[in-house]
C-alpha cells in the first residue's frame, strides 16, 4: 500500500482510537498501521492466515473471529477498517465479512469511524464496492474519500470513510 495512503489512514485515527481490522488476513495493513503508531487489533477467521499474522506481528493483538461474533468487548472500538486489498477474498470470506459487519454497531463506541480500503477505479474492485454497498444499505454516501495512484510496487487504493454518532 502506498506510504501516503497509510499516512492518510493514520491521520484519520487519533492516538487514543483503537482500530479493529476485520478479516485482516496475514496482517499487511495491520502491520503498516501499527508501525505508523496506530493502536490496532486484528481479527481473522482463517487459522493459517492468523498464525502467519501472529508470527509476523507478535506485539499486535490478533484474535480469531467466528462467523457470528467478533470476540471484542461492546463499545470498545473507535474505528473499523475493512481492507479488501491484501489477499483474494473467497465467497466464504465475503460471507463472513457481511456477517461481521452486523457486529460493528455492537463493538463500536458511540462516535465511530468505518474505513473501507479497496482497489482504485483503475484496478477493478467493483465487486468489493458492491459488496460493501449491499451490506450497508443504511449508510449514507462516504463522508470522506481519497484516491492514491498505483505504481510499479502498489495497486491504486481508494479509501472511503463514514463517521457516525
Query: Approximately how much beta-strand content do the residues carry?
Result: 25-35%
Using the 3D structure, state the CATH architecture. Answer: 3-Layer(aba) Sandwich
CATH class equals Alpha Beta
Helix content: 25-40%
- The total beta strand count reads 7
How would you sum up the global shape?
globular
Radius of gyration: 14 Å
N- to C-terminal distance: 29 Å
Class inferred from helices and paired strands: alpha/beta
In DSSP terms (H or I, runs of 4 or more residues), the helix count works out at: 5
Name the quaternary structure. Answer: single chain
The total domain count is: 1
The CATH superfamily is identified as Vaccinia Virus protein VP39
Mean pLDDT: 78
Q: Looking at CATH, which topology would you report?
A: Rossmann fold
Largest β-sheet summary: 7 strands, mixed
Residue windows where pLDDT falls under 50 for at least 5 positions: none
Main-sheet strand order equals 3-2-1-4-5-7-6
| Helix and strand sequence | HEHEHEEHEHEE
